[in-house]
Amino acid sequence: EQTLSVLRQLESSLASMGLRLGDVAKMTVFLVGDPVLGGRMDFDGFMAAYRQYFGTEEQPNLPARSAVQVTGLANEGMLVEIEVVLARAATGAREAVAAPGAPATGLHSADADFAYCTVCHGSEGLGNAAVGAPNIAVLEPWYLERQLEAYRDGIRGAEDDYAQEMQVVAARFDDAQIDAIVDYIASFSPKPRVTVSEPAQGDIERGRELYTACAGCHGTAAQGNEAAGGPTLAGQSDWYLVRQLEAYIDGRRPSSPADPRGTQMAAAARMLETRDAVRDVVAHIGTLAAPSARTALQRD
């Protein structure tokens, strides 16, 4: 009931600004542990209410979403609080709305399209472990373009909840918008990930030996190799590398037969026979410096 009430209030507040639930690009949900559930948050109860407002025939938008359990909220007795980031389509621009009563900021061209991306990946593209978003500032333009197209076309997106959210976001973009986003991200200086979680613990020396099988596609210094289709790994978030390798090993990637490079990568990843081997390789990659520059993407 509380979630329904909060969503009704949100819908009303948006309407007062000339906006609607379809303009929500990102939602963060704070849930207090429910004593009835042994102190666990009632995520299923939240989702039951959420589905009445999002992903319906009338309102099909599914924003990127994360849920966090908290010990309490400022309003005593409340079990749910929802924070949203909005992006509204307008003629020639999208408008990001910070809060009720605050002036809208016009965002044009790549800035407008990238507004969706900054919610999770940050204003400099460095990523955010809390929402499962990797460092995109270190990635090559050709790889970013390929992945955005794969998400948009449904080739990627089924491997986990994070990928599903990414697919929903990418589905908004046409080819021109993807080109603009990629060019915008390419304007950032490549930077290594900021470690906000415990680094991968592994045997660096053993990881160096295991990595020799990866070098053919990703480069001896994990700098990437466009001809082989292998993206830069150096400077990438270690937790993200572990998550993707495990997805390949477990058979969650690739999630479509239309991803031959993913099939190739899955076969290579399965050569790492244990989870310790995964962490060893990632620990070695963590010792390598991120590239200092990128090659510009050449389009026909």
Distinctive features:
39% helix, 11 helices, five-stranded mixed β-sheet, 300 residues, alpha+beta, single chain
Overall description:
The chain has helices at 2-16, 43-50, 109-121, 141-152, 161-170, 175-186, 204-211, 215-218, 238-250, 260-269, 275-285, and strands spanning 24-32, 64-70, 80-90, 93-97, 105-107. The chain is of the alpha+beta class. α3 (109-121) packs across α6 (175-186). It is globular, with a radius of gyration of 21 Å. Residues 89-109 and 194-199 have low confidence and may be disordered.
SSE inventory with pairings:
Blueprint: H1 2-16, E1 24-32, H2 43-50, E2 64-70, E3 80-90, E4 93-97, E5 105-107, H3 109-121, H4 141-152, H5 161-170, H6 175-186, H7 204-211, H8 215-218, H9 238-250, H10 260-269, H11 275-285
Parallel strand pairs: 1-2
Antiparallel strand pairs: 1-3, 3-4, 4-5
Oligomer: single chain
Number of helical stretches of at least 4 residues: 11
Mean pLDDT: 83
Residue ranges: pLDDT <50 for 5 or more in a row?
89-109, 194-199
User: What is the beta-strand fraction?
Assistant: 5-15%
Largest sheet: 5 strands, mixed
Q: What is the H-and-E element order?
A: HEHEEEEHHHHHHHHH
Shape: globular
- The number of strands is 5
Please bin the fraction of helical residues.
25-40%
Query: Which strand order spans the largest sheet, edge to edge or round the barrel?
Result: 2-1-3-4-5
Distance linking N and C termini = 54 Å
Query: Measured on Cα atoms, how large is the radius of gyration?
Result: 21 Å
Structural class: alpha+beta
